[in-house]
Amino acid sequence: MMTSVDTDLIRVLSDPLRLRIVTLLARETLCTTHLVEETGAKQTNLSNHLKVLREAGVVETEPCGRYTYYRLKPDVIETLAGQFADLAAAARANAESKRPC
Hints:
By secondary structure, this protein is α+β, with helices and mostly antiparallel strands. It has helices at 7-13, 16-27, 32-39, 43-55, 74-93, and strands at 30-31, 59-64, 67-72. 59% of the residues lie in helices and 14% in strands. The chain starts with 6 loop residues before the first helix and ends in an 8-residue tail after the last helix.
């Protein structure tokens, strides 16, 4: 069983601020104003990170008046977690397998 992990998604989530945003959005749907308050990041910097997360399909937006709310898409995170679980299972199953030199 060969499995691969979505390296583009790992790259997107490897940034500390983006990971913080994802962690916050796992708890509740938030607007940019809330995220600025929670992270201490500048609004323009936060907007750039949210754009990356949107383009990667990690978050979705919901317009609400003059605000935009962001919601985490749990299926994307579950898929990545499943890929890592598959890797762990393969490592356990092949723990004794060694290629001869």
